# Entry
Amino acid sequence: MNKKIKTEAVDHLFQAILTLKSPEECYLFFEDVCTINELLSLSQRYEVAKMLREGSTYLEIAEKTGASTATISRVNRSLNYGNDGYDMVFKRLQESGGEKTDGEADSSAADDGAAE
# Structure
């Protein structure tokens, strides 16, 4: 763990995040805490990491996510030489049934809209 980020304030932030119970609560909290660009950058890095683990090429990743090759390279470095945080999350998501694909998210959103 990087000693530079291990502070009382970061501990408090992480404890707050751990209280969130749903994606909706995450949206509410992170929209207050982060700028739109910060949140989009975080989500882009996560998508890049997923695609790298799935074996996608830099070109495929850049085209799908809009990430620069520098960003893809930094994420790749984290995957290969970092703290294994991405892999820990990927494993837990896989064990719990994974996350929704784009198609599943779209169909559930459409279902929600139909109920209104």
